Amino acid sequence: MSMTDKEKRSIQNLVPYTVAPRDQDQQAIYLDANENPYPREYRLSNKYFNRYPEPQPKVLLESYAQYAGVQPKNLLVSLGGDEAIKLIIEAFCNDENAILFSPPTFGMYAIDSYVVGSKVLEAPLTADFQVDVPAFLSAAQNAKVVFICSPNNPTGNLMNISDIEAVLNGVSEQTIVVLDEAYIEFSDRESFATRLAEFPNLAIIRTLSKAFGVAGIRCGFTIANADLIQSLQKVIAPYPMPMPVVEIAEQTLSQEGIEYMRTAVKQINQNKAAFIAALSSLSLVKKIYPSDANFILVEMIDAEKIYEHLKSEHIYVKKQSGQLSNCLRISIGTEQEMRRVIQVLSQYN
User: How far apart are CA 68 and CA 65, in angstroms?
Assistant: First the structure.
């Protein structure tokens, strides 16, 4: 199906998802992309790359299946959670049906939908950033794919389990419910991956980019029932995962790698608690929203000027827009980095 001139124009008008350029500022403190600030060294054993990789690497799938408590048949590995989102939309949506999500949330749901030509429906979150279940289920009657992000980006909070269950039980069997759990390791919530048998139309997005600290390799997973995984295999590229990515991902999911992740998560959560305590005493801070992720959403007295001030001091955070235009999303870095943020904000006039 060819793209119409109107569709081409709509893509040209899209605003790209942006982050601060990496490695161009030697003094930079990057707190804009929710990365794990504690690197771990990896070594590659494979020296030859003249052959294509496995389409879905067996050892990697087995390792992640064991970690997530599912079977390999319930997994698809892709280039980050971002590609997983795109694949689900490509597999199930076209210009005759719609996706649904609840803003404020991750911007790529909408961007990927516009690229495919799918309609975009919204059912805004409640005042405390929870799913408005009646409004969501009403809108879902006209949607093929619905997205729930928990913990939610950029607000940081988990969605109520009962509300997620209400959506899963309330939508049509033909509607795919996508639960984006990119930040689940930072919370005390068990993944919905253990409940696949209850919900045939559930797809869960996970990633190694956040808690596991390998954002640079771009490796994510879709967890779903086998029929849904087979549908995604129809649209994914033939050899999607580069060999070096697979080798590093396998090391990441070793017992040592999982222990590293859990230690890093504990340290990041401790840094977050200390940062929130220090931040709450500053007069320029109006509100700090509760967070179950490795970032916090902060309402400021003048978010735009504070954003620019932080940037002038080589500190990069994520500026928000729309209903959150007076807020900044700040990733949690090392203890030293967070102390530097407090120092800079304390000196702000």
Answer: 5
